Every structure is written in structure tokens, then in C-alpha cells.
Amino acid sequence: MAKKKRSLFECQHCGEQATKWLGKCPNCGSWDSFIELNEEQQEVLKKTTKLVSTTSKAKSITQVKQDDITRFTSNNSEFDLVLGGGIVPGSLTLIGGSPGVGKSTLLLKVAGNIAQSNKKVLYVSGEESAGQIKLRANRLEANHDDLYLLSEIKLEEIMDELLRENYEVVIIDSIQTIYSAALTSAPGSVSQVREITFELMRKAKDTDIAMFIIGHITKDGAIAGPRVLEHMVDTVLYFEGDASKEIRMLRGFKNRFGSTSEIGIFEMTNEGLVSAKDIASKFFDKSKPQSGSALTVAMEGSRALILEVQALVTESTHPNPKRSATGFDANRLNMLLALLEKKIDLPLNHYDVFVNISGGIRIKESSADLAVIASIISSFRDRPLSKESAFIGEVSLTGEIKDVYSIDMRLKEAQAQGIKKAICAQKPSTKLEIKVFAVDEVTKMLELF
């Protein structure tokens, strides 16, 4: 009796699998996205799954030989910083970002920098012709003899090109446009993306070629395709920023060769994306004081950034006042507003409150709590705060102001940018020229207004 074929369905948006067809994906919520995988596609799935979860005989950690990781520079300080100190041969890096943010521009510039140091680089584009890339390379000053362009979407042709020359770096733009003739599915489908990434990873590991893959993102901001992609690659980077503004940020979300706490900050110029030289002055305004504006110092990896927190408090005309936060956690904003109502008796339940972090950056730590509270009180009472003051501290539910890590580094950066006064939980251990006022309770903030 013939063995019954096992049915397997897969979501074409996120790669979720099920043994029966589903109308709505339980993982990403997309409708009518499940298709049935044929036997060939199921074999590809088994092959890639085995690679991700390979098993071997365990040995004592004292008997394991440490891998010596070598790196070479991309000649771009911010790019090297996010990668952990430079490019690792044989690594596979996935870079995602919204359309128009500058992914192709950045990598073409990096490709030109690497080619300038006598390393052969192959830039593969499935979206543009070689002539279009040449136009952008002229603007970026990325024309070098060791930079090769290939306009191709067929994986087998790309692999043949890798056999002709000894390339050290390969850039794929983008993974969703490449297809393999071994599969019948369309380019960009989950099975195609998985198979192509698997083959590129195997090639990178076998030949020590450093590969960079550009990936499209979904409307939710995640890299399109199956989640196994992020497990297969060594590094996952996201390119963030508003296309209408000059500042872009490259943030690491996974890095097998370094820390994910660092961010790279770039500036869009006529010559393309370049490392931001004067980062400190990009995120706050040094003009005259205005109500609803307060400065804070946040840590992004190993660097301190002075940020401007803006708040707008207006009387509400609706029974349910609006609460909105851009660049700051909305749930944390609601907590701070409730705290102000209880501890300082501010009638904020009758006011709309809007909070924004200037410069398009998103704060992911709690050190800005004090600045958010200061900006809200400033806007509510219409009393400007000095641009020479910074507010640094975490606020608890009891109204206590807590100290934050790396306070000395934050204060040194504030002092370097001309800030003369800092309000925080406690005074630093090192002696600085900046005046520090220790405030341990939220109720004492009213003394500053």
C-alpha cells in the first residue's frame, strides 16, 4: 500500500507552518497566505532545518579550541562599530530597512571603500541594471577597479560568477528578488528565500567570503520572510530613520561576533551616507528656551547622546484625553502621567499629552523619565526650562528618582556640549565642572519651576 503523502502548509508572509490550510495566520495575522508545499519544497525545508539545528557529540568546554576571529575594516567607522569592530570573513549579514532609507546607498559606498583597499567586491543587484548602479557609484565616488557589478536574479548564475573570481566580499541586493531554478515557486516566496539563503551561507562558510544580504521589511517593521532567516545568518542589522530627515541609524539585533548594544549613526549628504562627525548636536536645539522642552543624556551602546524631549499639554475637548508618544514608550508615558496626578496633583486627566523625542531617535532605556516629567510640567505651567540644564534619572511608581548607569560618562558628554547644570538622583563619583543637583523625589521637581 502506497505511503500517504504528508500535507504541509506554509504562510508566505512569515513562514509559519501548519498541517492543514488556515484562513488566517496565527503568527503574523495575515489572511489567505497559506499555500501547500510540494515534495520538492518540503525537502528544501528539511535540509535547511537540519543545518540550523545540527547535533554532534558533546565534549568538555576545556577541550574545545577557541576560534580566532579575524576582521578587516570597511573604512567606515560607524559601520565597523555596529559589526563589532569590522567585517569577519565567512560571515553572513542580513540588513533590513524600509524602502528609501538608504540600504543600497550605504552598502554601495561600503563596497567602494573595501575595493579601494585592494579587496575584490561583487555587488549583485536584482532590482537595478549595472548602468543605474554606475550612476549612483559616480555620486558616491565608489568607482574602483576591484568593485564588480552583476545585474542578475538567478542564483545559479551568481554562483558561477563566484567561481570565476576570488571575491572577498559579496553584496546581494536584495534577497527577495533572487530565485533558484531548482524551485518552481516565485521569487520572494518563503521557500525561495530560504533555499537561496541556505546556499549563500554554505558558500560563505566554505570560501570565507563575507556576504551582506539586503532584505525587505513588512509593514510591521520585521524582515520579510521566514523567521529561520534570522537564525541562519550571523548578524542581523536594521537600518532606521525617516527618509525626509538627514540622520539614519544602523542598529544590531543579532551579532555572533560582537555586541548588539552599539548603533551606527549616519548622515545623508550629496555624497551619500557618511559617518556622522558631529553627532552630539544633531539631536537637540541650542536656540532660546521654550516651554515643554527638556534635555536628557541617553546611552546608545558605548556612546552618550544628548536628546531633546518635547511635550505638549493642552486642555482636552474629549471625555477620554489623548496620550501619544513618538520615540518613547507609550505605556511608560501613561505610568508617569498617573504618577504626576497622584504625587503632584496635576489634573492631567483633563488634558491631552503628547511627547516626542527630537531627531527621530527612539529611547529604549528609562533614564529619560525625569526629562519627560520636566517637559510635561514645563508645558503644563508654560514655563521654559534652560537649555543649559539636563535631567537624568529613572522614576519609580513610588515617585522615587533612581540613579542610572554610566552617570559619569553622561555628565562628561553634557559638560562637553556646554550644559552647565544637571538634575539627577545622586552626585557623580568624579569631580566635574558641571553643577549637579541631587533630587530623590518627584515632588521636589516643583522647586525647579
Automatic annotation (TrEMBL):
PROSITE patterns the UniProt entry points to: RECA_2
Keyword match DNA-binding: yes
Keywords recorded for this protein, A-Z: ATP-binding, DNA damage, DNA repair, DNA-binding, Hydrolase, Metal-binding, Nucleotide-binding, Stress response, Zinc, Zinc-finger
Protein's UniProt keywords contain Calcium: no
Region entry Lon-protease-like, spans: 352-449
Motif (RadA KNRFG motif): 254-258
Domain of life: Bacteria
InterPro entries: AAA+_ATPase (IPR003593), DNA_repair_RadA (IPR004504), P-loop_NTPase (IPR027417), RecA_ATP-bd (IPR020588), Ribosomal_Su5_D2-typ_SF (IPR020568), Ribsml_uS5_D2-typ_fold_subgr (IPR014721), Rubredoxin_2 (IPR041166)
Residue ranges of every copy of the RecA family profile domain listed in the record: 68-217
Binding positions (ATP): 97-104
Domain notes: The middle region has homology to RecA with ATPase motifs including the RadA KNRFG motif, while the C-terminus is homologous to Lon protease.
Primary role: Plays a role in repairing double-strand DNA breaks, probably involving stabilizing or processing branched DNA or blocked replication forks.
Protein family according to the UniProt entry: Belongs to the RecA family. RadA subfamily.
NCBIfam families from the UniProt entry: sms
Protein name, entry field: DNA repair protein RadA
Protein's organism: Malaciobacter canalis
Phylogenetic placement of the source organism: Bacteria, Pseudomonadati, Campylobacterota, Epsilonproteobacteria, Campylobacterales
UniProt gene name: radA
